[in-house]
Structure formats: structure tokens, C-alpha cells
Amino acid sequence: MNNQTWVRRDLEVLWHPCSQMKDHEANMPLIPIKSGRGVWLEDFEGKRYLDAISSWWVNLFGHANPIINQAIKDQLDTLEHVILGGFTHEAAVLLAEKLVEITPPGLNKCFYADNGSSAIEVALKMSFHFWRNLGKTQKTKFITLENSYHGETLGALAVGDVALYKETYAPLLMEVITVPSPDCYHSEAGESWEAYSIRRFADMKQTLARHADQVCAVIVEPLVQCAGGMRMYHPAYLTMLREACNQYGVHLIADEIAVGFGRTGTLFACEQASISPDFLCLSKGLSGGYLPLSAVLTTDTVYRAFYDDYQNLTAFLHSHSYTGNALACRAALATIGIFQEQDVIGNNRRLAAAMAKAVERFQDHPNVAEVRQTGMMMAIELVKNKSTREAYPWQQRRGLKVYRHALSQGVLLRPLGNVIYFMPPYVITEKEIELMAEVAWQGIQLAVRD
Ligand SMILES: *Cc1c(COP(=O)(O)O)cnc(C)c1O
Q1: Does 436 reside within a domain?
Q2: How far, CA to CA in Å, does 53 sit from each of 60, 258, 367?
Q3: Nearest residue CA, atom 11 of ligand 1?
Q4: Where residue 372 sits, what CATH number does that domain have?
Q5: Which of 165-173's residues contact partners 24+ apart within 8 Å by CB, and which partners?
Q6: Of the candidates 306, 341, 376, which is a domain's last residue?
């Protein structure tokens, strides 16, 4: 069957995520994918697309990666899944051991869930419940940064701050304390990222000083606010935040669902600030982009506050049916195995430099306000007016023009509003990076035309 047939059948029965379905009838035709290999996706008529966004930031080592494929096949013939309540299995144990080993020091316990938003729910509930078990029942609030994103379930949505996703549901959401972001897009001309992020910390410090007795935790996306437009900040902010959380008796939740596993130039973004959070949320790249899986790593201190005789009712009774799925754990083990057997971080440094080189000329474009990069994440922010940084009205959907042009040229970019970004799998070549950048450049030229 050809593309058209699949699109027609799809639109009869399927409702797609993050989409105005009407768009798919004209503006944004659906692309049916038949197969994938490496950074390439292929449709039913043989047209290929370079997956420059790692299929929503999940894929690390390419589609149909032979190592991960084999690991899943082996597991499939042994055990596909088993209830993790009261039971355990090899892959779940090995993966928990491995995560404890490779994550920042002090994170010694691993709690599984089956997607990123659920991991956030787990961390929020665990933090609240920890304080409750200690008798600190007045701690019921969370501090979050402006422009942050932590997922779409109600708890995760509440601690996020992207209006497009959140506003409609505001009446359903718990109240949070929102603090200005260290996002360096807003730094003064000539001010370094470090200076700006440090300056911004004053707001956080003040908020902690004022509200600490009601606050369970501060939740952040370390270094890059991804869904919020790939906005970036300096690790100094995280170092200061860790200290302040200790000082004020508040947990720190690091949401590394998007930035974990080598995206920022280190295995975990927290490493760049030399900190360990109280909760580390992982998903997306955790399984190499193969299967839904997430994990929340936490400390012995947190674990011990729940550990008691059953009758005292202090246990953490949260669960998801597919928690610790064996196939997903095996995919994750194979993914981490690749990090341990190959110099992925070193190779990414080379690729990141190639990405920087490929977009050198973008900086001077009259409609580019900023080109920013953290490791394997590169973002180009389009504006109507470069000197005032006046944004294009969102109704004009300039990014969509880039999306459509890129697809016509065989590259999958999926701009966030007016922010074009690259977040490719780590198996991309320098030649493919050049293609990705060239197509983005052409797309920008088209998008800024009136
Ligand atoms: C994607 C994402 C989530 C949510 O993960 P899902 O698996 O989509 O629910 C949470 N936090 C961050 C930072 C993310 O990028």
C-alpha cells in the first residue's frame, strides 16, 4: 500500500498527539513511515527523511540499531514482562544496578515507571510523602521555573509553565510557586551566561527563604528548557540551587528526561554542576528510543523515610502496570552498554563541533536572534526584528514553513514555534549534519519571506 492509503485509513480512526487534526488534512500532511535505519526514516514510497529530532528526543543510536535489536530479541524469547509488585526479574535488577552506578553519587535507589510524565508524578509524590512521613505536613508546594516543561499529566503539567499546553487546564491544576528562569536568551548584551544565570538565582534564593517551610521540592530541567524553546542556562545556577535546597531543607528534583544520556555533553547534565539531586527523573533516551520506560533515582535518606512496619502505613503505594517492563529494561541495558563500550561522549564532542560549524553563518541572518548550543542540542531562534528581538506573531506559524520545506527535502525538523532546533541521534555523520543545516537554512529563507 502507498502513502496515501495509509494516510486515509489513519485519519478515519487515529487521533494524533500534540496536533490540531484539521492541520493534517492540508497544512501538515501525515507522513506514514514504513521503516527506519540509523538516522533515516523511510515512507511507503521509498522517500527518506533524516530524523534530526531523534523522533521526539528519544532515539540515541539510530533506528533499528543492531545491538539494541539483538538485546530485545534475546529477552523476548525469555520473558516479555512480569508484574513488578512482589516479583522481580534479571533485566530490572541489572538496569537498577547500572543506573545507580552511572548516575551522580548518592542516588542509590531506583523506582521504575513507564513514561516521562509518570516519572515526574512519582518524584512529586515521593517528595511530598517523604516530608509527610517525617511529620512535616505543612510542606505541600513545589517551586518551578518559568518556561519549564515536565510532561502532560495533571501533576506534571502543574509544575510546568508552557502556556500553550497548560492554560486550558489551569482550573484542574495544583498551585505552584513559579520563579523567573535563568534562561540566557534574556541576558544583557555582553553579559556571560554564567553571570546572567548567577544573577537570576537571587529570585530563587528569595523564594526559598520566604516559602521553604511549605515547599517540598524545587523541580528543574538541568541546563536546557527543551519544550520551552530549547532555552539554555549555565551550570552555576544548579550548583547554587543545590546548596540553597540543602540550606532551606527542600528537595531538588532534576528532570533529565530530555537532557540525560549524553545530550548536553556529559552523561547527565547535573555532572556539569557537580551536583546530585534528591530525585533524578529519566526516560526518553533511557531505552535508546525503543520502548516506554522511565526511572526515578533517589537517595537512601528518602528511601529510609518510607521503610517501616506495614501497619505504620508509610509505604509508597504508587504503581503502573508496565513498571519495569523486561523488554524495555533490556533495551536500556543495551543502550547504556553502548555508552560503556564506545567513547560516545567524546564522539559527541566532535559531532557538536561539526554542528556549530555547520550553522556558523546563521548568526548573521537578519531574522536570527540567537544561535545557541549545549552539547548535542542546537537551537536557532527566529525573530521579526533582530535588534529589538520582536517575535513573529505566533499566528503566522513561521516554524511550520521550515517544517514543510525540510520534509520536502528529506529532513525531519519539528520547530518549537519560531525556534528551529537540531537534536539528532548520536550516529549522525558530519555530512548528514551539513545536509540538516543546509536544509534548515533554506527553510529559514522561505519562512521569513512575507
Ligand atoms: C518529554 C518530557 C517529559 C515527559 O515525558 P513523556 O514520556 O512525554 O511523558 C518530561 N520532562 C521533560 C523535560 C521532557 O522533555
Answers
A1: yes
A2: 10, 12, 22
A3: 150
A4: 3.90.1150.10
A5: 165/227
A6: 341
pLDDT one-digit tens code per residue, 238-258? 999 999 999 999 999 999 999
What pTM was computed for the model? 0.98
pLDDT tens digits, 202-212: 999 999 999 99
**Ligand 1 near 149 CB (within 6 A):** yes
Last residue of a domain, one of 319, 341, 363: 341
Residue 158 in any domain: the answer is: yes
* CA gap 383, 397 in Å, rounded: 12
Look up the CATH number of the domain holding residue 136: 3.40.640.10
How far is the centre of ligand 1, averaged over its atoms, from the C-alpha of 342 (Å)? 27
Backbone angles phi, psi at 114, to 5 degrees: -125, 10
Candidate of 117, 181, 296 to mutate for ligand 1, largest count of ligand atoms within 8 Å of Cβ: 117
The answer to whether residues 321 and 349 belong to one domain is no
Domain extent for 353: 31-64+345-447
The CA distance from 195 to 205, in Å, is 16
Residue 429 CB neighbours (<10 A) = 13
- Which sign does the torsion angle of CA 189, 193, 198, 204 carry? positive
Number of domains in the chain: 2
- For ligand 1, atom 15, name the residue with the nearest CA: 258
SS (H, E, C) 133-149: HCCCCCCCEEEEECCCC
